[in-house]
């Protein structure tokens, strides 16, 4: 794939197209092989582009979409009554082979529902999962699912483990350590789904399954991939974001106490901010939807320009590594070993 | 209750009786009205007491117990085959009215099972819950369940909400705001149990139910009491502990970089350590078992002397506030309003 085209849902997110257009143009400049398709209200997008100089229009197309899915719209409604939404048109570019990936900062539930409807899941995958990187003491861990699937059967957790391992490999980890998130490391701990999933994973061919990790083990870096249902994953991700920003606020307060500490605070603050961004990975870098016949990256609704750029970069890596085909190959190998 | 007696399981925890005896004697000195019953291997406890001076033996009794429950022992085994364990004998002192509360740093599962067997739950309560205080931007929030109950029905979550509210009141909060932990604040979000529990709580008399909070809302201090199943609560608590200690390590590293920052680091480190302790509340202050016909506080297995002291203090507050009777009264009031 010499010249990947990324379809950008220019209308999604809390701030409208302004940040998204800025981030897109910055990526276009930074990556000379990149082509973008900005999907949304064409006149508005043109107006925003006109504010920037030196835009290489030969690598930038604008695709008109008449409708916008609101951030609080029900997924079912978005699916039924808005065939011309920017999100859907962007996904259809991927389905039609006119783009190799879609990036959106829009309504998560709608993006999940539309992705599944437009792109379909890979054979053997029941439900797509949402995955993001969480910083740990030793590096990063891929956590899934982050909220797309509230209740998960053992079989779904098993599929997530396989998908997570492929994503870690896509991002450069060799023989990633895969673990199930649990409330203890002994065999007797956990709910029925987790215990059954553990049995499936122990028997899985070619997967480096290391057993259970607990919430603290995740941050100690015990695994490269941590699997849980979407309720648990979402709570873990959001509470971690909330805790990190509370700690950052307290440390800032601490630094503000006297002149000496204020001086050092000024030195340390950029590093603390970076830590905080690191600890809100989905907000900062985007999360991938996994298990689809196509690449979809979700940027946070309130992502900054840099955050949206990171999401485009993530999509580019997945395109370069051909993530869905890797996943398809892995799943087929599993099928041949007798798993359903 | 002028002279409360607290039964201490002296043999529980990762470090054996040494820390526990030290913490117990410190509490005895600090609280002149306190009486303690140290339960365990009497000769060993006597030996440890002999190392301390000025111990008021008139307020300290030693109760011999021949067996110890191991930290990795199965609860069912602890229940069946160790009738003479220090944990069980301490709980029996409470059941027999010879002590007003029990504090243990031992095996959590065994403590839950034995408490339920020896003390019984209050009428109307199906399962005891484990609760601890989590620091937030505005103060503290009581989080339950922390791992005692892996799967919870809507009715169990409802009971937890009532129990959590009573605990918050016991600790001094007027009309505590009660919320269900969820992965969104819209009505359509969440799993079936949470949605059903929301319906029950909306109709609950005398409960200040404010709806759903998310993981980040918890740390923003949106609620005084946050209710979830034990799997979710345990993951939230342990991942928060893991994240806080990871951040503390990074901040320390940051401070170590040059002479100036090292100097400030030395100033700030005690405050950072305190923050970290604050963020590991169950480890530091102990967690209460709620819904029993008696007061039981679980100190963390690897609690420090200060941590175990805090757990004894927590038990003392619950004794002074007559926690189980408050809870009984509240549950009866609910029954009269037609709930089952």
From TrEMBL, chains A, B:
<dbReference type="InterPro" id="IPR012281">
    <property type="entry name" value="Phospholipid_synth_PlsX-like"/>
</dbReference>
<protein>
    <recommendedName>
        <fullName>Phosphate acyltransferase</fullName>
        <ecNumber>2.3.1.274</ecNumber>
    </recommendedName>
</protein>
<comment type="subunit">
    <text>Homodimer. Probably interacts with PlsY.</text>
</comment>
<dbReference type="Pfam" id="PF02504">
    <property type="entry name" value="FA_synthesis"/>
</dbReference>
<dbReference type="InterPro" id="IPR003664">
    <property type="entry name" value="FA_synthesis"/>
</dbReference>
<keyword id="KW-0444">Lipid biosynthesis</keyword>
<keyword id="KW-0012">Acyltransferase</keyword>
<keyword id="KW-1208">Phospholipid metabolism</keyword>
<comment type="pathway">
    <text>Lipid metabolism; phospholipid metabolism.</text>
</comment>
<keyword id="KW-0963">Cytoplasm</keyword>
<keyword id="KW-0808">Transferase</keyword>
<keyword id="KW-0594">Phospholipid biosynthesis</keyword>
<dbReference type="GO" id="GO:0043811">
    <property type="term" value="F:phosphate:acyl-[acyl carrier protein] acyltransferase activity"/>
</dbReference>
<comment type="similarity">
    <text>Belongs to the PlsX family.</text>
</comment>
<keyword id="KW-0443">Lipid metabolism</keyword>
<dbReference type="GO" id="GO:0008654">
    <property type="term" value="P:phospholipid biosynthetic process"/>
</dbReference>
<comment type="function">
    <text>Catalyzes the reversible formation of acyl-phosphate (acyl-PO(4)) from acyl-[acyl-carrier-protein] (acyl-ACP). This enzyme utilizes acyl-ACP as fatty acyl donor, but not acyl-CoA.</text>
</comment>
<dbReference type="GO" id="GO:0005737">
    <property type="term" value="C:cytoplasm"/>
</dbReference>
<dbReference type="GO" id="GO:0006633">
    <property type="term" value="P:fatty acid biosynthetic process"/>
</dbReference>
């Amino acid at each position: 794939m010499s010249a990947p085209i990324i379809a950008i849902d220019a209308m999604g997110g809390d701030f409208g197209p302004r940040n998204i257009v800025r981030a897109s143009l910055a990526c276009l400049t930074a990556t000379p092989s990149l082509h973008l398709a900005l999907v949304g209200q064409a006149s508005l997008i043109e107006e925003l582009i006109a504010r920037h100089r030196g835009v290489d229009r030969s690598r930038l197309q604008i695709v008109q979409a008449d409708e916008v899915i609101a951030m609080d719209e029900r997924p079912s409604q978005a699916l039924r009554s808005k065939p011309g939404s920017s999100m859907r048109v962007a996904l259809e570019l991927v389905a039609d082979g006119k783009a190799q990936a879609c990036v959106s900062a829009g309504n998560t539930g709608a993006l999940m529902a539309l992705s599944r409807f437009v792109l379909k899941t890979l054979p053997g995958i029941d439900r797509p999962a949402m995955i993001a990187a969480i910083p740990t003491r030793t590096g990063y861990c891929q956590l899934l699912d982050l909220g797309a699937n509230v209740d998960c059967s053992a079989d779904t957790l098993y599929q997530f483990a396989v998908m997570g391992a492929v994503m870690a490999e896509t991002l450069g980890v060799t023989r990633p350590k895969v673990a199930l998130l649990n409330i203890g490391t002994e065999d007797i701990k956990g709910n029925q789904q987790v215990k059954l999933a553990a049995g499936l994973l122990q028997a899985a061919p070619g997967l480096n399954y290391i057993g259970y990790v607990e919430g603290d083990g995740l941050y100690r870096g015990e695994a490269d991939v941590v699997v849980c249902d979407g309720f648990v994953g979402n709570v873990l991700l959001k509470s971690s974001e909330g805790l990190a920003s509370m700690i950052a606020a307290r440390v800032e307060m601490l630094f503000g106490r006297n002149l000496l500490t204020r001086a050092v605070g000024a030195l340390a603050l950029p590093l603390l901010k970076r830590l905080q961004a690191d600890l809100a990975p989905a907000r900062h870098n985007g999360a991938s939807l996994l298990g689809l016949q196509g690449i979809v990256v979700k940027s946070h609704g309130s992502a900054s320009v840099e955050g949206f750029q990171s999401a485009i970069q993530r999509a580019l890596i997945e395109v370069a590594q051909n993530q869905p085909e890797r996943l398809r190959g892995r799943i087929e190998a599993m099928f041949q070993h007798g798993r359903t």
